[in-house]
Amino acid sequence: MWITAVSQVRCSRICSILVGVLATGLSLLPVAGHAQGVSVAAASSLRFAMPELIQRFESQQGVEVRTTYGASGNFQRQIEQGAPFEVFLSADDERARALEDKGLTESEGKTYALGRLAWLQRDGQPLPPEDAPLEAVRQAVERYEADGVKARIALANPLHAPYGVAAQQVLEHADLWQRSRPLQVMGENVAQAAQFSLSAEAAGGLVAYSLVVASPEQDKQGYRLIPSDWHSPLVQRMVLVKGASEDARAFFEFMSSPEAAELLSRYGFSTPNPSEE
């Protein structure tokens, strides 16, 4: 009996300790909502604009935003496979609408910005004329065809990246797509293409204007804007993924606000017309 009583006392003490540890542990776990934050999949064209947008939202809402950057086509596939993103900021309209059509979004999305394409090259090289922004591509192609010298032309992969699609359309417009194929080096996304554009092996590249105007490499680069009618409009659309939290909804609404539009305009984006939303 005495042994049994001692055992019961010990068990009681151990159980009390375990309950205390469990309670402490539970108090340290993140609470649903604000503490968990918002998970955002953002097109690489937003890499320089997003930090300021996030800072503004977090200061107003007290909600953390966790952002992953990449190619819109890859994000579309990942969300279709169940990736835990709540907001998808695509670099085009097509991939966001594809998720809407498959019933993977909370509601119809919105156009949050219009993008531009630019020719980007290292400083120290003559810039192409404003009315012939692809002249450096043409010269690189002619030199390759004449003596085999390869000055690389960078662009994002059209299979994954909307800015890569636009770059292909621009080169096709100038009858340079096929001729430049041996010189092309493709980034997985447009941010990687911008890095390739400034490499020693490259003549330059076709990248998002938003990655040019806010680049920390301003003193090491030159650029020319590409006429917007040389490619399909870069209509950048966002959607709320199915099951998104209230915090994610708040971020979605912030990205729809005039405040966000004004911030985006500083990074080379323009504001969509209501008809384009």
Please outline what is shown here:
This protein is of the alpha/beta class and 277 residues long.
Could you explain the architecture of this structure?
This is Molybdate ABC transporter substrate-binding protein. One of its GO terms (biological process) is molybdate ion transport. Molybdate binds at residues 45, 72, 190. The protein has 277 residues and is α/β, with parallel strands linked by helices. It has 2 domains: 38-115 and 234-267, Periplasmic binding protein-like II (D-Maltodextrin-Binding Protein, domain 2, 3-Layer(aba) Sandwich); 117-225, 3-Layer(aba) Sandwich (D-Maltodextrin-Binding Protein, domain 2), CATH 3.40.190. It is built from 10 helices and 10 strands. It has helices spanning 2-28, 50-61, 72-80, 94-101, 135-147, 162-173, 190-197, 210-213, 246-255, 258-265; strands at 38-43, 65-70, 87-89, 110-115, 117-122, 152-156, 184-187, 202-208, 221-225, 234-240. The strands form 2 sheets. The protein has a 5-stranded mixed sheet with strand order 2-1-3-10-4, sandwiched between helices. The protein has a 5-stranded mixed sheet with strand order 7-6-8-5-9. Strand 6, helix 6 (162-173) and strand 7 (184-187) form a beta-alpha-beta unit. Residues 1-35 have low confidence and may be disordered.
Key terms for this structure?
molybdenum; D-Maltodextrin-Binding Protein, domain 2; 2 domains; molybdate ion binding; 40% helix; five-stranded mixed beta sheet; metal-binding; single chain; ModA; alpha/beta; Molybdate ABC transporter substrate-binding protein; 277 residues
